[in-house]
Amino acid sequence: MTIETASHKETSFSQENEAKNLHDDVWRGLDPDEFTALRALGHRMLDDMFDRLETVRERKVWQPMPPAARAEFQSPPPRAGIGAEAAYAAFQATVLPYELGNTNPRFMGWVHGGGTAPGMLAELLAGALSNNLGGRDHAAVELERQVIRWSAAMLGLPPQSGGGLVTGTSLANLIAVLTARTHRLGAEVRQRGICGARLTAYTSTATHSCVPRAFDMAGFGWDSLRLIPVDADHRMDLTALSAAIAADRAAGCTPFLVVGTAGTVDTGAIDKLPELAALCAAESLWFHIDAAFGALLALSPTRATRLAGIEHADSVAFDFHKWAQVPYDAGCILVRDQARLIAAFAQNAAYLRREARGLAGGAPWLCDLGPDLSRGFRALKVWMTLVSHGTDALGQIVDHACEVATHLATRIAAEPRLELLAPVSLNIVCFRYVPDHKIPQAKLDRLNADIVADVQEAGLAAPSTTMIGGNLAIRCALFNHRTRAADADALVDAVLHAARVRENV
C-alpha cells in the first residue's frame, strides 16, 4: 500500500490548481472572445429598428404568416448554436415580416400602445443590467419605487400608497382581489384559506374578462362575482348594485369588494366613480378600479375630470403599455395603504433574510408587495418614457386619440351604409356596415366579420370585432400616438371598399 505524504499532497494540489487556473484564463462563458463583431451586429440591429420606426407608415399593418414560415417554428432546439449573426438573420426572415403590427398608426383593433424609441432603448439597457427587482438594495429598486410614487400622485392617492409594476392589468386585478380578501378575512386566511366564507364581489357586465378570471384564480369561483347591468351609457347601474349587495347580505353572504371600471374595453365608458366610492364607504366594501387605459386620463389637460373619484379607491390597476406608449409589458397595481399589500404577500425565508445594511437591506422588498420574486427591470422603460417625453406630452396623446375618435365617428355618421353602435365617450368607436337591403342578423354579423378580416389581410388597417347590444361591431380602439385623422379616414375607405367587393361577389 502506498502512503501519500503531506508534501506529496501539497504538490498534487498545486499542480491541479495551476491547471484549473490555466483553464480559467481561457474560459469565457457565453461571452465572445472579442466583442468587435458582436458590437457591429448590435449597432446594425439598432439601426434596423430605428429604420423600422421611421418608415412604419410605409408598411402593411399586418400580414398572415404562410405555412412555410410557420413551419420554421416547429424545429427542435439546436444542440449547437448558429451564432448571433445567423440568429438575427432568422429573426428577420421569420418574425419581423409577420409581427403584430401595433406600432403602425392604422393598428386600431385592440387596446395596444405603439411603443416609443426611448422605451425601446430602455429595454436594451435593462437587458444589459439583467437586474432582479424582487428585492435587495440597489438603484433599480429605487427607480421602481419612484415610478410608483409618481403614479400614485398622478391619481391623487396618498403618500402611504404602494404597489409595483407587473405584466399587465390582468395580474394587477388579481393582486387587488387577493389584497381585498386578506383585508376582509385577516392574515390567517393566507394559512387556512377562506374556509367556506361566502364572500361576494360586484362589477358591471361591461367588465374586462380578466376580472372574472381573477376570481377563478383566487379560488372564489366566478359565481362569487355578481355582474351588475349597465345603463344606456354602459356604466354600472348603481340602483341594481345596491339591490344586489342587500340581497347577498340577506342571504348570509359577505360582500367585500366592488370593481369599478374607468374605460370599458368595448366602448370606453367610465363608471360613476364618486358615487361608487361613496357606496363602498357606506357599505364597508373595498373599492377597486380597473383603469387599464383610463388611468392616463389623469394627464389630459381637458379630460382629467372624467376620472373624478379615482382618488378614493382602495386600489387601482392600469397599464403603461397602452396610452402611455411604453413597450410591452408594463402594468401597475397601486394600493392606497402599502401595509395592506405587505399583509397580503410578504413572507419570511432564511435564504431571503432582510438585513439592516448591505445588499440585503432595503426592506420592504418589492416581492413583499406581490406574488413575484423574480421581477425584471420593466420600471426603466416606464421611467425612460416619462422622463424623456414628460407627462404633458402623454396627456396630449390622450386628447389627440379622443379627437381622432370623434373625427372617425363624424365620418361614420356621414356614410349612409355605416352605423354607430355605441356612444363615443373617449377613444373607442364601434360601428358596422349595413347593406341597402335587409338581411338576417346572423348574415349581417358574418358580413361585418368578413369585412374586418378582409381589411386586416390586405394590410390596410387592423380593426377588430366585438358585440354591442347583440350586434357584431367593427371596433376601433385609437391608442397609437402616431395615428392621425387621415388614418381614420383610410380605415373607413378600406371598410367600404371591402364591403363593396363582398356584395358584388
Tags for this entry?
single chain, alpha/beta, Aspartate Aminotransferase, domain 1, 3 domains, four-stranded antiparallel beta sheet, 16 helices, about 10% strand, disordered N terminus
Any overview of this molecule?
The chain has 505 residues and is of the alpha/beta class. It has 3 domains: 36-102; 122-389, Aspartate Aminotransferase, domain 2, CATH 3.40.640; 393-504, Aspartate Aminotransferase, domain 1 (Alpha-Beta Complex), CATH 3.90.1150.170. Helix content is 43%, strand content 12%. The protein contains 16 helices and 11 strands. The chain has a 7-stranded mixed sheet, sandwiched between helices. Strands 8-9-11-10 form a 4-stranded antiparallel sheet. Helix 9 (210-217) links the parallel strand 2 and strand 3 (225-228).
The CATH superfamily of the largest domain is: Type I PLP-dependent aspartate aminotransferase-like (Major domain)
CATH-level-2 architecture of the largest domain = 3-Layer(aba) Sandwich
Strand arrangement across the biggest beta sheet: 1-7-6-5-4-2-3
Helix content: 40-55%
The total number of structural domains is 3
Q: How do the strands and helices of this protein lay out in sequence?
A:
Layout: H1 6-26, H2 36-54, H3 67-71, H4 84-94, H5 117-129, H6 139-155, E1 162-166, H7 169-185, H8 189-192, E2 199-204, H9 210-217, E3 225-228, H10 238-250, E4 254-261, H11 273-283, E5 286-290, E6 315-319, E7 331-335, H12 338-345, H13 379-389, H14 391-414, E8 418-420, E9 428-433, H15 441-457, E10 464-468, E11 471-477, H16 485-504
Helix pairs in contact: 5-13, 6-13, 7-9, 7-12, 14-16, 15-16
